[in-house]
């Protein structure tokens, strides 16, 4: 933040800033200042207070669950930040900043740190759990670990959610995103031509499902090469089912990884095949919660 972000306002370096970067500080750095501020003013002090009493550490995470959601915003912005970096990363401005700082690594390595940090907390908590079986604070550690895994899941889910294209409505009005994942899907419509019905029965469609409290979205995953770099996935919207009007059949004859979601008194039936029985059961229990 001092060696790069602040330098973007340094009058003696302004002429080195590439035009593509003008007024784009917020895109490149995301809410990094917010993350820094939270750690510097709050979280670091609270963790340092546990040095003598490590059994109190878990409480820091439980107390700050809401605050740690700031990482979600950072991760959501990351694809935009990376695209901008690919455009401007080799400019003289960044080389000059790096030279002044005497850093071995360039800025993008540091911009990745928050993403690595949010995934590292759960590893550290797991290590602490290994060292503290049946001692004071163990239950809280387990709860803290569950909290961090929950945050990582919601960050991960939201990263997929921002890649949905072609949905006309506002995704934020669909309630909480509970689950997302890829499935084989067969459809069976009461209406429609028999030939179509027979075809639909044999060849599954690959669909990425997003389960919200109000709606189930069916999307098709597309892998796109972004400027010749790593593939970015996007999910083009295909159809949606209102959760208030769906029913579920937990078991389908002949395959314990399949379940059915149906609409309007079985007018439309979607046979969904998960990659494992465990995954199927997780989805069924989440769908059940919504329906009840």
Please name the fourth-level CATH homologous superfamily of the largest domain.
Dbl homology (DH) domain
In the CATH hierarchy, what is the class of the largest domain?
A: Mainly Alpha
Helix content: 40-55%
Low-confidence stretches: none
What's the architecture of the largest domain in CATH terms? Answer: Up-down Bundle
Which H/E pattern describes the elements?
HHHHHHHHEEHEEEEEEH
Helix segment count? 10
Largest sheet: 8 strands, mixed
**Shape estimate:** flat
Q: Which value, in Å, is the CA radius of gyration?
A: 24 Å
Q: Count all strands and give the number.
A: 8
CATH topology of the largest domain: Dbl Homology Domain, Chain A
Query: Roughly how many Å apart are the termini?
Result: 48 Å
As laid out across the biggest beta sheet, the strand order is 1-5-4-3-2-8-7-6
What's the domain count?
2
Averaged pLDDT: 90
Strand residue percentage: 15-25%
Protein structure class: alpha+beta
GO molecular function: guanyl-nucleotide exchange factor activity
Keywords: Guanine-nucleotide releasing factor, Phosphoprotein
GO cellular component, one term: cytoplasm
Pfam families: RhoGEF (PF00621), SOS1_NGEF_PH (PF22697)
What does it look like?
- Pfam families: RhoGEF, SOS1_NGEF_PH.
- One of its GO terms (cellular component) is cytoplasm.
- The chain has about 290 residues and is of the alpha+beta class.
- It folds into two domains: about 5-160, Dbl Homology Domain, Chain A; about 165-290, PH-domain like.
- It has ten helices and eight strands.
- It has an eight-stranded mixed β-sheet.
- The longest helix has 24 residues, at about 140-160.
- The protein is flat and about 70 Å long.
- The chain starts with about 25 loop residues before the first helix and ends with a helix.
- The model has no long low-confidence stretch (mean pLDDT about 90).
